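Is this the right way to post C-alpha cells for a design question? Let me know if I should format differently. Anyway, here goes:
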C-alpha cells in the first residue's frame, strides 16, 4: 500500500473544499430571477446607448 498517505491527503483536501462550498449561502430562485432581470436591463441600456452613438455618428458623417 504505497499510496496510503496520498489517499489520506487527498481525502482531507476534498473535505476541506466541500466544507468551504457548504458555507456559501444558496441564492433563492426569486433573488436569482431579480438579479438576472437587473443584469439584462443594464445590458439593454448599454446596447441602446451604443446604437444611439452609432446613429449619431452616421448622421454627422464622422467617426471617432
Amino acid at each position: 500500500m504505497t499510496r496510503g498517505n496520498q489517499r489520506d491527503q487527498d481525502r482531507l483536501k476534498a473535505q476541506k473544499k466541500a466544507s468551504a462550498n457548504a458555507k456559501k449561502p444558496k441564492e433563492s430562485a426569486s433573488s436569482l430571477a431579480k438579479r438576472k432581470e437587473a443584469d439584462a436591463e443594464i445590458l439593454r441600456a448599454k446596447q441602446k446607448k451604443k446604437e444611439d452613438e452609432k446613429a449619431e455618428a452616421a448622421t454627422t458623417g464622422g467617426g471617432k
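Format looks fine. Someone answered above. Worth noting: Residues 29-60 form the longest helix (32 residues). The chain has two helices and no strands.
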